[in-house]
Amino acid sequence: MATIEGSDIKKVVVACDAGMGSSVLLTTQLKKSLSPYGVTVEHSPVDRIPDDADLVLCHSGLVDRARHRVDDTVVVAFQMFLGDPAFTRVEAAIRDGGTLAD
Predict the structure, then answer these.
(1) Which of these, 39, 50, 52, lies nearest to 90 by C-alpha position?
(2) Which H, E and C letters describe 47-62, residue by residue?
(3) Residues in contact with 58: Cβ distance below 8 Å, sequence separation at least 6, in sequence order
(4) Which of 12, 13, 14, 16 is flagged as catalytic?
(5) CA distance 26 to 41
(6) Are 100 and 90 a contacting pair, CB within 8 Å?
(7) Can you say whether residue 40 is alpha, beta or left, with left for phi > 0 and alpha for psi between -120 and 50 degrees?
(8) Residue 16 annotated in active site
(9) How far apart are CA 43 and CA 35, in angstroms?
(10) Spatial distance between the Cα atoms of 75 and 18, rounded to a whole number of angstroms
(11) Where are the domains of the chain?
(12) What pLDDT was estimated at residue 20?
């Protein structure tokens, strides 16, 4: 099980597969909410997640593929593209210095 301290997160990658645009909207939202903490947010296809990602966010249906691609990186799953508690948990860990695990 991979873990990371919120204070160590500098790059978050939102990984997708379907190309429906929801993950791009999520990326934009997270850029706004995480930029005050010095965190960059990028969008990537799940099979091409960059190796320098500190944290990966992806829909629960893509978790296994994401973990296979970046096996030593924390992958946080979510169910809803907007308002999912996972996003609140990630922001709180970054802001308050908590630990995230997959």
Answers:
(1) 39
(2) HHCCCCCCEEEEEHHH
(3) 14, 15, 16, 46, 66, 75, 76, 77, 78
(4) 16
(5) 10
(6) yes
(7) beta
(8) yes
(9) 15
(10) 18
(11) 3-94
(12) 64
- Judge if pTM exceeds 0.85: yes
Q: List the structure tokens of 95.
A: 């802001």
- CA 18 and chain centroid, separation: 17
pLDDT at 22 (0 to 100): 87
- Of the CATH numbers 2.60.40.60, 3.40.50.620, 3.60.20.10, 3.40.50.2300, which one belongs to the domain with range 3-94? 3.40.50.2300
pLDDT 10s digit of each residue in the chain, 102 long? 799 999 999 999 999 986 668 898 999 999 999 999 999 999 999 999 999 999 999 999 999 999 999 989 999 999 998 899 999 999 999 999 999 998
Do 39 and 51 form a contact (C-beta atoms < 8 A)?
no
Burial class (CB in 10 A: 0-12, 13-18, 19+), 101: exposed
Q: State the residue for tokens 């999912």.
A: 84
